[in-house]
Specification:
The chain is an all-alpha fold and 199 residues long. Helices cover 73% and strands 0% of the residues.
Length: 199
């Protein structure tokens, strides 16, 4: 097989996988949890091919939502953070940026939460830790102010302020509107940094 043929084969596999995940997201957006066969039918690919990519519908659904979330997160531009921002300012900027993205795609994130915890009768699917990597990357220019142990405490603490779980607590439990949700999360981010810095 030539290198060109190999490249084309890889590209075709990526297109097939993308089509399958897109079809899955369409089902999920309609409030339905598709089987692998249903997603294959909607994507207009053979069921046998689809099962080569995903043997279980929960794994397929989780990957479909994570794929969309990763693309949405990639659109959050942390390069716009003020260059003179201290660690607290950077943390506040990061939390605000991620939360605005989560709020803009709240239904998608709620679907991910449903899929990741098993959606009732289904067993819980393992949840990814991508959020931690995103936070570390966004804070990297200022994390040098902390030793490794405090860096990890800060990153894991900020993870509590940057997901759909935050929205569920602040909106569903506390009854806050979007502006207040963001302001509350920003205040908590600054408080968290101050506590970690004071250790």
């Amino acid at each position: 097989m030539s290198s060109q043929e190999g490249f084309e084969r890889v590209a075709q596999k990526q297109r097939t996988r993308s089509a399958l995940l897109e079809a899955t997201r369409e089902w999920l957006a309609e409030g339905k949890h598709p089987t692998v066969a249903e997603a294959a039918d909607r994507a207009k690919i053979s069921r046998a091919t689809a099962y080569r990519y995903f043997s279980a519908p929960d794994a397929m659904a989780q990957e479909a939502v994570l794929d969309a979330i990763a693309r949405e997160f990639a659109a959050v531009n942390f390069a716009d953070a003020p260059t003179d921002a201290d660690l607290a300012g950077r943390a506040e900027f990061v939390v605000s940026g991620i939360l605005r993205m989560v709020l803009a795609h709240e239904a998608l994130f709620r679907t991910f939460l449903s899929v990741s915890v098993g959606g009732g009768s289904r067993p819980a699917a393992p949840r990814g830790g991508r959020r931690l990597g995103w936070i570390r990357e966004a804070l990297a220019p200022r994390l040098g102010d902390l030793d490794a142990a405090r860096q990890e405490r800060l990153v894991t603490g900020l993870a509590l302020l940057t997901g759909i779980e935050t929205i569920i607590v602040l909106r569903d439990v506390c009854g806050l509107g979007e502006d207040v949700i963001e302001a509350t999360a920003r205040d908590l981010a600054r408080t968290l940094v101050a506590g970690v810095m004071a250790e």
